Amino acid sequence: MSKPEQTNALQTLSRAIQGFIFCLVLIFFSLSSVEIFGQYFRLAFLPFAGLFLWPLQASKRWSLVFVFILGVLYDIFSGGPMGIWALSFLIYFIAVNEGIRGIKDKLGWLQALGLFFVTLIFLGAIAAVLNRVSLGIWPSRIIIVNTVVVTLIAFPLIYWIRNLLSFIGGEPQENRGLQ
Amino acid sequence: MSDRSGNQYHKRRNIWRGIAAGLIFVSFIALVSDGQQKILLASGRIQADGASAKVMEFLATPVRGIQAMFTNLKNRTNIIQKNASMKAELARIRPYETKALDLEMRIQSLEKILHMETSSDIPTEKIIARAVSEIHGLFAYTSLINVGYNQGVLSNHPVMTVDGLYGHVVRSGANSARVLLLNDMNSRIAVMSQRSKSRALMVGANDKRPKLEYISPKSDWKIGDRIVTSGDGGVLPQGLAIGTYTKYGAKKTGVQLYTRGKPVDWVWVYPYKPIPAPIENGSKADVSINPLADKLTQEGLVPDLVTGAPNE
Questions:
Q1: Contacts of B28 in chain A (CB under 8 A)
Q2: Is the pLDDT confidence value at B132 over 90?
Q3: How does pLDDT run across B259-285, given as a tens digit for each residue?
Q4: How far is CA A150 from CA A21, A107, B71, in A?
Q5: Which residues pair with B167 in a beta bridge?
Q6: Which residues from chain B sit within 8 angstroms of residue A87, using beta carbons?
């Protein structure tokens, strides 16, 4: 491997690590449910905002490995069946990053929100099927809708923090956000 | 040159596809083989719970603050109405106080005459803990508390809030423990109606209301019955308050938990020791759990439980 290739490989790996750390923080936030006036606000889909905003220039191979590790950690921390979040993370990540890779970098925050909403519907379907496969029951639709809505509400804040981190990291304006 | 780079691109793409397929396969196998959430990475989970408990203890503080703010707001808005209803309730139950004290005195006298075993199953010792993370998720209803076996918390110990039973410990690490909440679909608690003593099994359904199952056709359950642990099976002590038997929707029934709708912060764990099974290795059976039986055995009024011979 030549020197420029080595430098490039290191850069793409560092981008993947950035995505990993950002998602890990979101996982910790998602481990608490907020209960207000007897109504739970579930944050379980919060890490998927991090996957949606995963750096496009990150190493594709390392990204896959990191996403898998994140899923396993989420399974362990949440106390649920092993593999359920790992599989959800992988399917979501591959679908989002391969399916809409071409258009992701051209989006403003509002379009990103719209697109994220569409991916969350897809995620809700994945979660329902995996719940059925592993636990033998269909999950409550109310719980899924609640989780999707809470994640959508939190998305602009996450998007802004991601942009801010890119700014602090010295990224040029055109490379921020979904880059 | 372009052929070479094209080949490299395809090679890299194939490697990526291979990794993706491999990881998906591994995840799927883990998912299928770990339906009961106990098999895979059991020791790793305990370590991870310990690590996440420390992080969550820090992160939970602002979340609890926000919850408490809204709870206070709700309480303050109803304060006059609540005060009036509590005064009315106090006036209603005051005559019962005298009646209760009178009954207590009579029962104590009767128990003394009959030499009854009157101690409660519920331990007097409590281990105070903080619920640092509470997951009401899609796949699990669990909580993480910041005490573990170093403080005396072990698997199956009941976890309480001021309102009632919260769940039971399923994994205990050095300084943290994982609590399975009553709503979780893996939760099975032997319960009874406090009014009729009818038994049932309370089964979580990953929903806000657990269901009652294995109800005998002859048992007497009524909507509004207060549900407590029955102590059957010896896993949990008898008499821990759980909730109320309620009807919802057109025909559905379930248990309205006392802990539902209230932010859970501080909890306590009862270090409950289950009643030991009789020893069957040829020595005398362990009947020390029942002092009356012991006394009768000593007095030769019942035969030896092992040999069947009269006790002398």
A1: 83, 87
A2: no
A3: 887 778 889 999 988 777 777 665 554
A4: 22, 22, 20
A5: B159, B181
A6: 24, 27-28, 31
